[in-house]
């Protein structure tokens, strides 16, 4: 019985890990409120500046599907510092 339970747990874990095909998050592209006219993404009422938003997606209010990572920028200047978003991939949400 223990072996069967163990196999069930392992197979469920592997199944969940293998079916992460659509791990993107819907975000809104914005320049509003960004320092130095930078572009950023708005996620759950938080806005993060980003230097890696493709030019073709730099439109105010555009909602896209993206995979991103947040990181801390330690610089202290008017146009930098704080939490930033590194865009790994971005596509229209209809794709």
What does this structure look like?
- With 95 residues, the chain is of the alpha+beta class.
- It has one domain.
- The protein has one helix and five strands, in the order αβββββ.
- It has one helix spanning 2-18; strands at residues 25-30, 40-43, 46-49, 63-73, 82-92.
- A five-stranded antiparallel beta sheet has the order 3-2-1-4-5, with no helix packed on it.
Break the fold down into its secondary structure elements and pairings.
Layout: H1 2-18, E1 25-30, E2 40-43, E3 46-49, E4 63-73, E5 82-92
Antiparallel strand pairs: 1-2, 1-4, 2-3, 4-5
Core attributes:
38% strand; 95 residues; 5 strands
Would you count the extended β strands for me?
Answer: 5
Mean pLDDT: 81
Number of helices: 1
* Biggest sheet details: 5 strands, antiparallel
State the secondary-structure class: alpha+beta
Give the strand order, joined by hyphens, for the main sheet: 3-2-1-4-5
Briefly summarize what is shown.
The protein is an alpha+beta fold and 95 residues long.
């Amino acid at each position: 019985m223990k072996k069967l339970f163990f196999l069930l747990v392992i197979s469920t874990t592997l199944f969940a890990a293998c079916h992460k095909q659509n791990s993107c998050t819907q975000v809104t592209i914005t320049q509003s409120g960004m320092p130095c006219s930078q572009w950023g993404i708005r996620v759950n009422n938080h806005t993060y500046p980003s230097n890696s938003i493709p030019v073709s997606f730099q439109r105010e209010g555009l909602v896209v599907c993206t995979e991103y990572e947040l990181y801390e920028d330690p610089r202290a200047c008017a146009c930098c510092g704080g939490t930033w978003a590194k865009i790994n991939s971005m596509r229209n949400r209809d794709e």
